[in-house]
Amino acid sequence: MAWETRNGRGRYYTRSRRVNEHVVREYIGTGPAAEAIAILDAQERAERLGNRAAWQAERERMEVTEDRIQRFSEGVTDLTGAVLMGAGYHRHHRGEWRKRRVNV
Predict the structure, then answer these.
(1) Rounded distance, CA 66 to CA 74, Å?
(2) Which of 1, 38, 78, 94 has the smallest set of CB atoms within 10 Å of its CB?
(3) Other CB atoms closer than 10 Å to residue 88's CB: what's the count?
(4) Sign (positive or negative) of CA dihedral 16, 19, 24, 28
(5) What is the pLDDT of residue 104?
(6) Which of helix, strand or coil describes residue 3?
(7) Would the CA dihedral through 27, 30, 33, 36 be positive or negative?
């Protein structure tokens, strides 16, 4: 998406697009029509950048929330373990909680 001048013969507008694995330059032209297309391309580019920034901000908020949930979950797990150990339970091979046997 650029205005180019070759051999000093005036400006013309081109844009690049990807076709399969290759980048292909598409000739748009000169004059008012090319300028209008260039403006539309710039608006679309600005909109994409705005959407990308909004999505990045949302991702960061989600990561903060996920981190808080993770820390809360770890706290609940630790608290549950402490309560169960106080009640006479133990972790069987680091798996499920079982009540310790008491020989009478």
Answers:
(1) 12
(2) 94
(3) 11
(4) negative
(5) 57
(6) strand
(7) positive
d(CA 45, CA 78): 49
**Could you please report the per-residue DSSP string of 59-73?**
HHHHHHHHHHHHHHH
d(CA 36, CA 28): 11
Output the six-digit token pair for 71.
Answer: 């820390």
* Average pLDDT along the chain, 104 residues, taken 10 residues at a time: 78 88 89 91 94 96 96 96 92 87 70
* 3's tokens: 């205005």
Predicted TM-score (pTM) of the model is: 0.58
> Which pLDDT does position 1 carry in this prediction?
65
H-only helix segments in 1-100: 31-86
**CA–CA distances in Å: residue 66 to residues 7, 12, 55, 60, 62:** 57, 49, 16, 10, 6
Question: Residue 30 in contact with residue 10, Cβ under 8 Å?
Answer: yes
